[in-house]
Recover the amino acids of this structure.
């Protein structure tokens, strides 16, 4: 995967100038966000379910060591194996040695963000095992040699014309020389090409949306059915999962699945939800002969019990990015690392370090929409603020910004001065943004508005409104 | 015990400020798993049996499946033959190898050609038996075993699933309870929850049916066995 350099500002500027991307991002808003709102409205218990889902994960995280051990025990009882991996490198090497054990030449792959996190594909390819992405979006970006730009719609940034070009370029050598331009035709072509590959692959690799301690099952959720073909037809099924995916029981899985589908795509339920437990039994009609779970830590165990621990509740639904004004403006690639959007801005600095990721927590308007829609009630803005403080005290924040923050801090300690300044600023902004509700540019804050529109304030400061409401 | 395993468990316990795998935590987890406590279950599916079946049908249809409600198992071959003829589909069927399917009176419709077992890539119509239908979202529950092929749920273009009215329940939790009672401690390799036919929205977010799995999902709901 060729992730872009971690220069959020430059990436964002480039993204803003890309008309294809702007069109694609407007579709994210209407489709994902619009459908989520409809699905939530259809289920009166949605908020209660969110509350329950959060409680499940908080309970699991407080007993995570025990749950992982229980999960392992059940996997082993069912005839499977669990491989504990501290680092991406350990995970990659474990997967490669499993592939070598069955002399795999090709492996099919379902969608997995953990596979992106450990940069699995280039490693397997360099070592003689050809990875074949089967989720249509992942297949498209594999042809384009690009990283995903969205955690549930990896190719949302691609237009139909670009996909048509990619297929034409790559499928010609398979004897498909006719250019296809309609959606159904493109889907059919990918379906036909991948069909035989499922049957030919020696290993199928999937991610996991959940792990269930009660039964030792891994759970995947797809709409295409690609994950099921991937994990049913080859000799070996390898699951790559990060360790926070475990839940206690099937009942808990039900609760999380209910909020996941609605938050992600606004569906009542995903088309295929599949629980896999161990390899095929001796008298089973079909299924893989071996089942392995590669359990990745990659620094997550160190997040337990810290402010960042709340991020371990994340179920990777994508709602936060679908509702984020910054993501809407710059798309996923600008973030420069595996996880884009608010969850990426909060999580990526943990993986790549605050120095390399210093721009990410700045990629926020602090409008709070992400936290509002997050089904797991993760305080994303607070965590971004935490990183800003870290970067400030680690002195990686640029000097001008440090100066401005100190100025603000000085004023904030003098209430009268603060109120006066804030009121003047709010009045001016409201006037300037009247009628449109947002600014594309702000004087003196070009660096800030170049990547995002500023929602225009209502014209009164928070303090004024609060006082007004109390009176 | 691998070094990685020990290190990970220790790191977690350090964050939690206690010893790894401490007895109090073990006890809490055992209690939590054994209690199988239900969280909030949507009221939507909690209905009398007849209304539950109606909801199952309307939800399955809303998710893009077609549904035929019939009165007896004997007429399943007729329902399938008529469906295939009506949609101009091939008449070669591959049945999941369940005696309840293979033992049906297929001779009633001699034009159908019948095989059973795991499908080949060339098999275009698959017939399977669900163990439950969930009214809440029109979801079918199937599982692997000596009498059921999992790949048959995914490789054929047309997936026909038979479900009995008595097996329609309100919520996923009810279906899992049924399954626990049926399989006992030996949980199956695969449990599939299937809600409508395969689809993708990966090209400009346009919904296209038949991505990798079945293009069509046809449900035959047999309503003679209701309690
Ligand atoms: S942070 Fe919340 S909204 Fe964002 S992907 Fe994770 S669970 Fe979904």
């Amino acid at each position: 995967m060729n992730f872009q350099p971690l220069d959020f500002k430059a990436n964002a500027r480039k993204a803003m100038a890309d008309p294809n991307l702007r069109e694609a991002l407007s579709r994210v808003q209407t489709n994902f966000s619009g459908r989520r709102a409809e699905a939530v409205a259809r289920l009166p218990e949605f908020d209660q379910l969110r509350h329950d889902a959060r409680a499940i994960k908080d309970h699991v995280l407080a007993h995570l060591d025990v749950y992982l051990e229980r999960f392992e025990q059940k996997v082993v009882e069912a005839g499977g194996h669990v491989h504990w991996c501290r680092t991406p490198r350990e995970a990659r090497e474990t997967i490669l040695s499993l592939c070598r054990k069955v002399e795999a030449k090709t492996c099919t792959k379902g969608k997995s963000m953990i596979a992106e996190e450990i940069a699995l594909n280039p490693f397997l390819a360099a070592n003689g095992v050809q990875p074949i992405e089967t989720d249509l979006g992942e297949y498209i970006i594999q042809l384009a040699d690009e990283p995903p730009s969205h955690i549930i719609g990896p190719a949302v940034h691609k237009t139909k014309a670009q996909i048509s070009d990619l297929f034409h370029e790559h499928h010609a050598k398979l004897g498909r020389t006719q250019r296809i331009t309609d959606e159904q035709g493109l889907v059919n072509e990918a379906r036909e090409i991948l069909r035989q590959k499922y049957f030919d692959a020696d290993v199928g690799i999937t991610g996991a949306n959940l792990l269930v301690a009660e039964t030792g099952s891994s759970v995947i959720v797809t709409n295409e059915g690609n994950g099921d073909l991937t994990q049913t037809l080859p000799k070996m099924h390898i699951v790559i999962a990060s360790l926070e995916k475990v839940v206690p029981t099937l009942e808990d899985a039900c609760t999380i699945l209910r909020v996941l589908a609605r938050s992600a795509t606004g569906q009542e339920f995903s088309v295929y939800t599949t629980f896999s437990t161990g390899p095929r039994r001796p008298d089973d009609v079909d299924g893989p002969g071996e089942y392995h779970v590669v359990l990745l830590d990659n620094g997550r165990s160190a997040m337990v019990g810290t402010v960042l621990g709340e991020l371990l509740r994340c179920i990777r639904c994508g709602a936060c990015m679908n509702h984020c004004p910054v993501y809407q403006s710059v798309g996923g690639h600008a973030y420069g690392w595996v996880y884009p959007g608010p969850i990426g801005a909060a999580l990526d600095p943990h993986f790549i370090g605050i120095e390399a990721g210093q721009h990410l927590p700045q990629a926020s308007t602090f409008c709070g929409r992400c936290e509002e829609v997050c089904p797991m009630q993760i305080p994303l803005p607070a965590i971004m603020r935490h990183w800003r403080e870290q970067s400030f005290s680690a002195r990686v924040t640029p000097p001008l910004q440090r100066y401005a923050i100190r100025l603000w801090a000085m004023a904030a300690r003098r209430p009268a001065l603060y109120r006066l300044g804030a009121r003047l600023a709010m009045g001016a902004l409201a006037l300037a943004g009247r009628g449109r509700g947002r600014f594309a540019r702000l004087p003196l804050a070009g660096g800030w508005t170049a990547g995002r529109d500023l929602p225009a304030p209502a014209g009164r400061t928070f303090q004024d409104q609060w006082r007004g409401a109390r009176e | 015990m691998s070094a990685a395993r020990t290190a990970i468990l220790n790191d977690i316990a350090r964050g939690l400020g206690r010893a790894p795998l401490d007895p109090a935590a073990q006890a809490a987890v055992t209690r939590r798993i054994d209690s199988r406590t239900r969280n909030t279950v949507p009221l939507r599916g909690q209905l009398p049996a007849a209304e539950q079946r109606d909801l199952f049908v309307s939800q399955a249809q809303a998710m893009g499946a077609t549904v035929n409600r019939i009165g007896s198992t004997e007429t399943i071959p007729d329902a399938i033959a008529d469906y295939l003829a009506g949609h101009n589909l091939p008449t070669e069927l591959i049945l999941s190898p369940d005696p309840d399917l293979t033992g049906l009176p297929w001779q009633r419709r001699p034009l159908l050609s019948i095989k059973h077992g795991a499908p080949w890539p060339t098999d275009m119509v698959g017939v399977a038996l669900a163990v439950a239908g969930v009214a809440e979202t029109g979801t079918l529950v199937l599982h692997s075993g000596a009498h059921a092929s999992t790949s048959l749920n995914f490789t054929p273009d047309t997936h026909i699933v038979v479900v009995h009215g008595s097996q329609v329940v309100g919520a996923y939790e009810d279906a899992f309870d049924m399954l626990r009672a049926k399989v006992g401690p030996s949980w199956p390799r695969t449990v599939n929850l299937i809600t409508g036919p395969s689809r993708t929205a990966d090209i400009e977010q346009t919904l296209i049916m038949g991505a990798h799995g079945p293009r069509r999902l046809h449900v035959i709901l047999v309503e003679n066995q209701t309690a």
